[in-house]
């Protein structure tokens, strides 16, 4: 019994020393719970307020200004811009400059007095949280403002009107039925691609270092960038296959409509895959062991789930969380995939995210190549 206890104590001491010596892993494991706690406490919110809103006010009178003011002071809608017409509001939503729109008809004040005023509210249906929060808030604001006008009219005329002077017509664009699958499936395809890409490439360099095959690559005349591209191409093909499987199932099995250009979507998917694989190669070049590579990959996948707009809206997030999310290629592709898949918009509306994704992909590949070269030296 004493020998068994002694052996057990020796093994525990050996594992403790080994764990303490692996300082990167130790720091990562200790800091991860703190990161998760702060992310869920401060960055993750299911309630969307301060929704960027475009207003097309064709009346420009005191009544229309009072209605717009009521929406603004509610805290749910931020009036970001005034435009000329309903088509301009739709364009602002397509471009992502607004998530909601208000269209007020001409002669609004006279319509209010007659009790037949109607306000059109447009919501971006590609964002589930905006729809859920904005729909209820818009109805409540319109009803509350109508009750104020009714009370004012009763006080002025001395009798109660039969119907509220303002009614709202809410139109949800791109997802009229507010089907969650239309919101989830395109984004889920992007997350799955990032998961496959990171797992395929994050282990490749460090695995060869641990198995001893890296020395065989050192005697070849191949340059670091050539080695990176050589490892990238087969993984690109495999990741494209995974992407196609998810998209085919989403469209034909789950019935999610595809609204955009297939060829544009295919090229931008390839750009995202290269960016995600470049990030995986960078992890593989930096990590000392496969265990560290797995831990780094897990952290990136967690951040990608929380901070890129996949499950939780980015608008309520603090600036630090937004900055961390902007460091991930999934953030840019999330807007691209929803823009093309759900909205049917083209490169004109998405070029900012496309340029950011291209810069990210080139930067990740260059950093991975430089880091790999330093590790070889």
Describe the structure.
With 377 residues, this protein is α/β, with parallel strands linked by helices. It folds into two domains: 51-173, abc type-2 transporter like fold (3-Layer(aba) Sandwich); 180-376, no CATH class. It has 15 helices and five strands. The protein has helices at 2-21, 23-43, 62-73, 86-95, 108-114, 128-157, 180-201, 204-211, 214-218, 224-253, 262-286, 290-307, 319-326, 329-343, 347-376, and strands spanning 51-57, 77-83, 100-104, 117-124, 166-173. A five-stranded mixed β-sheet has the order 2-1-3-4-5, with helices on both faces. α7 packs antiparallel against α12 and α7 (180-201) packs antiparallel against α14 (329-343). It is elongated. The chain starts with a helix and ends with a helix.
């Amino acid at each position: 019994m004493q020998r068994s206890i002694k052996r057990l104590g020796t093994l525990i001491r050996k594992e403790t020393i080994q764990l303490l010596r692996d300082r990167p892993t130790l720091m990562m494991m200790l800091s991860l719970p703190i990161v998760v706690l702060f992310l869920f406490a401060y960055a993750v919110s299911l309630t969307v307020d301060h929704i960027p809103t475009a207003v097309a006010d064709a009346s420009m009178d005191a009544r229309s200004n009072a209605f717009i003011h009521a929406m603004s002071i509610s805290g749910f809608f931020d009036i970001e811009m005034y435009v000329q017409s309903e088509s301009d509001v739709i364009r602002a939503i397509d471009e992502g400059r607004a998530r909601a729109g208000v269209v007020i008809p001409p002669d609004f004040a006279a319509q209010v007095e007659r009790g037949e005023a109607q306000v059109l509210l447009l919501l971006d249906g590609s964002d589930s949280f905006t729809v859920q929060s904005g729909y209820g808030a818009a109805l409540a604001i319109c009803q509350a403002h109508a009750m104020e006008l009714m009370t004012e009219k009763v006080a002025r005329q001395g009798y109660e009107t039969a119907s509220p002077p303002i009614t709202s017509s809410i139109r949800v664009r791109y997802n009229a039925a507010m089907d969650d699958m239309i919101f989830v499936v395109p984004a889920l395809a992007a997350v799955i691609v990032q998961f496959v890409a990171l797992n395929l490439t994050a282990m490749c360099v460090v695995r060869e270092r641990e198995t001893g095959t890296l020395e065989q690559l050192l005697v070849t005349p191949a340059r670091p960038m050539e080695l990176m591209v050589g490892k990238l191409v087969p993984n690109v093909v495999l990741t494209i296959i995974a992407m196609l499987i998810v998209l085919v199932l989403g469209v034909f099995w789950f019935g999610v409509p595809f609204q955009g250009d297939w060829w544009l979507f295919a090229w931008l998917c390839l750009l995202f895959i290269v960016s995600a694989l470049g990030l995986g190669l960078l992890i593989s070049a930096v990590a000392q062991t496969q265990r560290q590579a797995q831990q780094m990959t897990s952290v990136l996948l967690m951040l990608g789930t929380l901070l890129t707009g996949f499950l939780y809206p980015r608008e309520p997030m603090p600036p630090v969380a937004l900055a961390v999310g902007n460091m991930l290629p999934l953030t840019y592709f999330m807007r691209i995939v929803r823009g093309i898949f759900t909205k049917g918009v083209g490169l004109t509306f998405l070029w900012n995210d496309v340029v950011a994704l291209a810069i990210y992909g080139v930067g990740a590949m260059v950093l991975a190549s430089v880091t790999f070269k330093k590790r070889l030296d």
